[in-house]
Amino acid sequence: MPDSSSVFSQALSRQGTNAEKYELRKTLFGRDDVLPMWVADMDLPTPDFILDALKQRLEHPILGYTVTPDSVYQAIIDWQAQHGYKVEKSQIVFTHNVANGFFMAVSAFTHPSDAVLVQPPVYPPFLSAPPLNVRKVVEAPLVLINNRYQIDFAAFERAIVDHSVKLFLLCNPQNPSGRVWQRDELQRLAEICLRHEVIMVSDEIHSDLVYSGHRHTPLASLSTAIAQATVTLSSPGKTFNLGGLQIGYALIANPELKAAYLKVCNAVSIHELNLFAMHALRAAYSEQGKAWRDRLLKHFSNNIDRLQTFFYEHLPDVKVMRPEASYLVWLDFRQRFSDHARLKEWLIDHAKLGLSDGQTFGGESQVGDGFMRINLAVSEDSLETALQQIKQAL
Ligand SMILES: Cc1ncc(COP(=O)(O)O)c(C=O)c1O
Fold first, then answer.
1. Does residue 2 have a pLDDT over 60?
2. Is the minimum distance from the CB of 243 to ligand 1 under 6 angstroms?
C-alpha cells in the first residue's frame, strides 16, 4: 500500500483482486493488454479511515445477520443535509446497489409494457432496465450545444404525452457528460412530470463529486410536491470506491411510493445493507469523508486539466467535455473519425486503451456514435501512460 502522499501520483496494481475493469478486457476489447479506463470505479485506494472501520469490525469473528443501527441512518441524513436535502429516517430504504435501486423502481412503479423515459446519452443500464423488466424505453435525447448538453423541454414533454410515460429516470448529475443539472432545469423537468403524473427517479450517485463553480441540487429538495413524486437513489460507492461492497439506498418521502417500492424489495428479499456496507457507509459519510472527497476532487481536477491540455496540443479536433461532476470525461471524436468502428479499432489496437464505448450510451437515438468515455480516477502515472500511448498511436 503506498503512503498517503503517493496515493494520487503512483499507480497501484490491482492484479490478484479480480478487478472487473482488468479481468473483462479480453471479453470487451478482444485483447488483454489495453489500459482499462472504462467501468466507473477508481484505480485509487479506498481511504484508510474506511479500511480501518472494516478491519475493526473484523476483529470480532462472528459475521452473522445484523440489523442496521440508527447511526447508519443518521450518517445518511447528515450527509444529504450538505446538499440542503432534509431526509427523515422513515424515508430511507436500503437497496443492493444503485443500479438495483432503479431496476426495482421500474418494476415497482410501472406495469408491463408501460413506457419509461430516459435522456440519452446516458448510463447504459438506464436503457436496459425497462426492457429487462418488460417495459418500453422512450428516449428524449439531450441536445449538444457548444460541447455542453442541454434539455429540449418541449421534446421531453412531447415524449411523455405521445407515449403515456409513467416513469422518468433522471441521471443527476449526468453520466457520461458530467453535467450538473441546475435548479431551474430540474424545476422545469419536474413540473412537466407533475403535470402528467410521471413518477421521477433521480439517480444521484455522482452528487458528491461536484467541482467548484457548480452545485448539486437533489431533485426531491425542490418542493414538497416534487418530493412526493420522486424517488432518490444514492450511495457512497463512487466517491469512496466501494463498488465491490454493493451499497445503495433509496429516499422516498411519499408513503404510497415507499409501500410500492418495499413490495418489490420484499419480493426479492432485499432489506438491509450488508454488514461491510454498513460499516463502510458510516465511516465514509463523516467529516473525514468530506475532507477526503475534497482531496479527491483536486486530484481529478488536475487529471482533467492534464487531459485537456494534452488533447488541445495533440488532438485538437477531439472535443473534451469538461465534467462539472464526476471523474468521467466524454470525448467527441466525430471530427476525427467518421466511422465509429474505426475509432474503436484505433483506440484498442493502436492506442491500447479500453474506454467506455459511446455507442452503449446512445440508445436508439444513436447520440453516442463517435463518442468515448474515459475514466480519470487513476493516478498521475497511469494517466501519463495513457497519454503516451495515445501519442505513440498518433
Ligand atoms: C449514474 C450511475 N448509476 C449507478 C451506477 C452503478 O452504481 P452501483 O454500483 O451502486 O449499482 C453508476 C456506475 O457507474 C452510475 O454511473
1. no
2. yes
